[in-house]
Write a structure and sequence with these properties.
By secondary structure, this protein is mostly helical. It has 6 helices and no strands. It is rod-shaped, with a radius of gyration of 49 Å. The termini are far apart. It is found in: Mitochondrion outer membrane.
């Protein structure tokens, strides 16, 4: 078991003189302003190698600076955001799957039927244009045949043979 003992620094244990009311910021010892503790073990014997420490190790070391309540709140927030993000991506993936398969199952047959209908319409246009061209070449032939067919349907069937 480790037993902790608090060791106070000499700088904090010595009593400082209380300034008088007349002096505002006057110090008896001018060296107190630039005081540094040069006898500490850290400054003399340091085995710390900052070059070999990774960023992850530095972040983990900073963990102790944050109070436990704040850490719990941060961890809770991060875990809820992570859960929300995972569920959103999962739902989006499933919705995309449903939409894409529905489009293939319903859209492809519709597109094929639409293309076939367009072909029929195009063929009818071409036939209409051919009739119009024939009408221009022989202007009275169709009208005479139509009049003849209306007058005598038997002659029309014989003329066609």
């Amino acid at each position: 078991m480790v037993k902790l003992t608090e060791v106070e620094d000499e700088h904090f244990t010595t009593e400082k003189p209380v300034p008088s009311k007349d002096s505002l910021l006057v110090s008896d010892n001018e060296d107190d302003d630039d005081y540094t503790d040069t006898e500490s073990e850290i400054s003399v014997d340091s085995a710390y190698d900052g070059e070999s420490e990774t960023l992850y190790q530095r972040i983990v070391a900073l963990k102790d600076m944050i109070p436990p309540q704040s850490r719990r709140r941060i961890v809770g927030t991060v875990s809820s955001l992570t859960s929300f993000t995972k569920s959103t991506f999962s739902f989006s993936g499933k919705a995309l799957w449903v939409i894409s398969t529905s489009a293939f199952l319903l859209g492809v047959p519709w597109a094929l039927a639409f293309a076939e209908e367009e072909q029929y319409v195009q063929m009818e246009r071409e036939q209409g244009m051919m009739r119009g061209a024939n009408e221009m070449l022989t202007p009275g032939a169709d009208a005479a045949a139509a009049a003849l067919g209306a007058a005598n349907p038997e002659q029309k069937s014989q003329a066609a043979l």
